[in-house]
Amino acid sequence: MVEGNINKPADPKNLTEGDKKHIPAIYVPKTIVAGEPFDVIVQVGLIPHVMEEKHHIEWIELYLNDTKIGKVELSLRKNKKAEATFTIKADKSLAGKESKLHALEHCNVHGTWEEFMTIKIS
């Protein structure tokens, strides 16, 4: 996990424009079956974050519970959007249980931001 400061909204019920541009949005399929692969899309911002030389997202990480799924380094040349897709194959031992997805992203100007999502694996 990332060491140091992780930015969070001061008031999660009243997000600022800056919050909306930096909080990772996590998208998962409606049905997740243990032992079968599924894709998780992490987009940076409820309002899409810019990908410009002076202000951009450098990387996105995803964890399932405490296990790191992966890290995607973003490039201004290759990435027009601040998003990444991760493929997960949840262990069969997670069937019938709630699990936690944890997404982190790093903005070159505004630092590291995170979001959590609880999922049910059948």
3D structure, described in words:
The protein contains one helix and seven strands. Strand 3 (about 55-65) and strand 4 (about 65-75) form a beta hairpin. The protein has one helix at about 15-20, and strands at about 25, 35-45, 55-65, 65-75, 85-90, 95-105, 110-120. Strands 4-3-6-7 form a four-stranded antiparallel beta sheet, with no helix packed on it. It has a single domain (about 15-120), classed as Immunoglobulin-like, CATH 2.60.40. It has about 120 residues and is mainly beta.
State the CATH class.
Mainly Beta
> In total, how many domains does the architecture comprise?
1
Tell me the fraction of residues in β-strands, as a range: over 45%
What helical percentage do the residues reach? under 10%
Residue stretches low in confidence (pLDDT < 50, at least 5 long) are none
Mean pLDDT: 94
Number of helices: 1
Order of SSEs? HEEEEEEE
Radius of gyration: 15 Å
Main β-sheet, spatial strand arrangement: 4-3-6-7
Shape summary? globular
The N- to C-terminal Cα distance equals 27 Å
CATH architecture: Sandwich
Structural class: mainly beta
Largest sheet: 4 strands, antiparallel
CATH fold assignment: Immunoglobulin-like
CATH superfamily label: SOR catalytic domain
Protein name: Superoxide reductase
EC number: 1.15.1.2
Pfam families: Desulfoferrodox (PF01880)
GO molecular function: iron ion binding; superoxide reductase activity
Short description:
The protein is mainly β. The chain has one helix spanning 17-22; strands at 24-27, 37-44, 57-64, 67-73, 83-89, 97-107, 111-121.
Task: Please describe the topology of this protein.
Blueprint: H1 17-22, E1 24-27, E2 37-44, E3 57-64, E4 67-73, E5 83-89, E6 97-107, E7 111-121
Antiparallel strand pairs: 1-2, 2-5, 3-4, 3-6, 6-7
Family: Belongs to the desulfoferrodoxin family.
EC number: 1.15.1.2
Organism: Methanosarcina lacustris Z-7289
